[in-house]
Specification:
Helix content: over 70%
Structural class: mainly alpha
Shape: elongated
Length: about 100
């Protein structure tokens, strides 16, 4: 928990501050820079790969199964609501007769 809080506070710092103060961030930046120097990837490819990795992470955080169950629950709720409204309308119609 303390590490998460530390990371959240660290995210408010500039990249230069993080590089100087966060050993993991420092190591990540050095690793990426070495990949550029060794001609393994261009800066554009690294940016693209980082964005793709973040996108993949976000997409996998909510599984399709969770979305499906949530969707099923909404359908059931809407069906129950429609049935309740229908009952209320029928009740009102019968009462007016």
């Amino acid at each position: 928990m303390q590490t998460l809080l530390k990371k959240m506070i660290n995210n408010m710092k500039s990249p230069e501050e993080k590089y100087r103060n966060d050993p993991q961030y420092h190591m990540l930046v050095n690793m990426l820079e070495n990949m550029i120097h060794e001609a393994q990837f261009t800066p554009s490819e690294l940016r693209e790969a980082c964005i793709f990795a973040c996108t993949k992470y976000e997409m996998n955080r909510c599984s399709p199964r969770q979305i499906y169950h949530s969707f099923e629950e909404k359908i059931r709720f809407n069906e129950q609501l429609a049935a309740s409204i229908g009952s209320a309308v029928n009740f009102k119609a019968n009462k007016q007769e």
